[in-house]
Write a structure and sequence with these properties.
This protein has one domain: Fe-S cluster assembly (FSCA) (GMP Synthetase, Chain A, domain 3). Helix content is 28%, strand content 24%. The chain has helices spanning 3-10, 52-64, 89-94; strands at residues 14-15, 20-21, 28-34, 37-42, 71-76. It holds the Pfam family FeS_assembly_P. This is MIP18 family-like domain-containing protein.
Length: 97
């Protein structure tokens, strides 16, 4: 398992509010893999994101179900703050920006 493979798996998780995956939205800041433990540093579009808890839960369950990963720790940060500029070109096009 590599961090690139983890990133590919994370790109299947959709933010229900924006209907774009969390990788293309730019919510994933860093992925670290040490033995069988994955640490993901990420943010949410806003502190009051109504889907924040469910997105974090889905990430943990999805990553911990991968072969070779026994634990997924989420480091939810607010600095640097998420902005629309963190989205990929694909995400911006999908949202008509």
């Amino acid at each position: 398992m590599s961090t690139n493979e983890i990133k590919q798996v994370l790109s299947t998780i959709i933010d229900p509010d924006m209907e774009i995956d969390i990788v293309n939205l730019g919510l994933i800041y860093n992925i670290e893999l040490s033995d069988t433990i994955c640490k993901i540093t990420m943010t949410m579009p806003t502190r009051s994101c109504q889907y924040g808890e469910s997105i974090v839960d889905k990430i943990k369950k999805t990553i911990e179900n991968l072969d070779g990963v026994t634990q997924c720790n989420i480091n939810l940060v607010w600095t640097p703050a998420w902005t629309k500029e963190k989205m990929t070109k694909l995400a911006r096009l999908s949202l008509g920006m």
